[in-house]
User: Fold these one by one.
Assistant:
Number 1:
Amino acid sequence: MKKNEISASPRNAEAIAELRKYYPSLPDNLTVGGSLDLRGTQITKLPDNLTVGGSLDLRGTQITKLPDNLTVGGYLDLSGTQITKLPDNLTVGGSLYLSGTQILSSENWVISGEIGSRNDNTSFDIVKDHVYCGCFTGTLEQFGQKVRASYKSGHKHRTEYDEFISLCKKAVAEMKGAKKAA
């Protein structure tokens, strides 16, 4: 195993729990093979270049900013944190949970208010063409197909999701226009 690499095991989870009692942050360039559950801890900062193979749970932490080059293979739960912006170089393989956060916009993201059947945030990574909505993750086109298959035209949730999709398409067009102008 490389330096600053942690594999998934109960023993390592206990070690991390012990570590976070005494240290408000973790070492730079840390790789965790499984999931990392930091909810409710006193950790105030995540290291740059953090890679978590599974899910990362930050609910209720004191963290106010996500690090550069954060990669999470599973879900990322930011519920109840003071984080206000998503970094442009964030990679999430599963769902993205933003309930109770102040994240309303970010340069490369479109983030809804509380909409749809979950009455929660729905997020779109413009650069990666990826939508996060509850347990759904996929492209904007796949999300539109799922919405059309799930709700009839005129249904409240369909209308809300359709408006979100329109906003996302507009953001994509604006980004493409800005790239052409540059």
Note: The longest strand covers residues 130-133.
Number 2:
Amino acid sequence: MPAPLDTTHGLPEKARFVLERNDEYVSGYREELGPNALRAMSSRDWRPDEVLDLHGHRVRGLEQELAREFRSFARRGLRRVLLIHGKGLHSTGGMGVLAQAVVDALTDGDAARFVRALKTAAPRLGGSGALAVELEIIRRHSR
């Protein structure tokens, strides 16, 4: 039986992010990578390897769910993910809380170790209702 793959080798236990945000836009990158980590995401050619639709999800348990999903993405060798969180238009008071919770989970939760950079998706991919995420390259070593 082959040895299990270590999909976290070389990843920091706690990543620090530089974030810029306003009401309609967010971007962020892992501090040690610098702002160039966002460059690929600005291309019109950026396409996700996977789309994860979070409509209907609640903030409670979201951080753990995203950590599980991102661990799975890493194991599968995915590099680009589009997270659809919605704009919150159907939320109480018309204010969504999921978008903020997703950013917090990806920059301060267990999923953060898999994230290189993130930013509000291009309009063609959902704009302020979605988040484009670049994942860390995982070096696969057997144990």
Note: The domain at 15-136 is CATH 3.30.1370.110 (Ribosomal Protein S8; Chain: A, domain 1).
Number 3:
Amino acid sequence: MTWLEGSSLLYGAVRLCRNLLLDLRFGAFLGGTIRTTHAGLGAHDVSNSDYRALSYLFANRILQTDVLVDIGCGKGRVLNWWLSLGISNQLIGIELDERVARRTAARLRNFRNVHVVAGDAIERLPVAGTLFYLFNPFTATNLRRLRDKLALLRPLERRLIIIYYNCVDIELFTEDPRWQVERLALPDPRLHPAAVVTRIRLGSGASPPLQPTALGSLPSGR
């Protein structure tokens, strides 16, 4: 075994243990991929974000007034992460696969601020949402539909941002003047590319800088 192979194995073991411990804190290990039964609708397989990535993506980005929405929440690992921060924000997960959504809702049923919705995320988009998370849940065609619907959510002057992880179709936002894109330089090169996408109003220029609380920082002991 080479040094590089050994390093990769160690990284994978540490990653697995970290994810396992926090998963079990909220009732079950969430590892593994579930083949989608909705490929014809443009959905991708159900997979999980890594907690290490989430710690970077949400650091100092969550405001106390935010309504957090995970589009394509799958087994609920992002919901776990938000809960681990100890925040009281409304947390919404939307999952197309009804069976997966039911299991996630049952596992997190004791958390009153969590609501898991089964169905098409674009059709059932929460109008009160302010911070949306995407882990490449569907095709570019569906992402374009989502982009256009989010751009029109009222009131238009309110805060509305997207944390887009594994942002393979980021050009759908960079080419649209309704959105401002900030590509993130994550400290671990083994993580997927990511971006923060902020809605702006035509003719108004970029939104003023936000002053978020430190709610997105890594919980102590994690």
Note: Residues 205-222 have pLDDT under 50 and may be disordered.
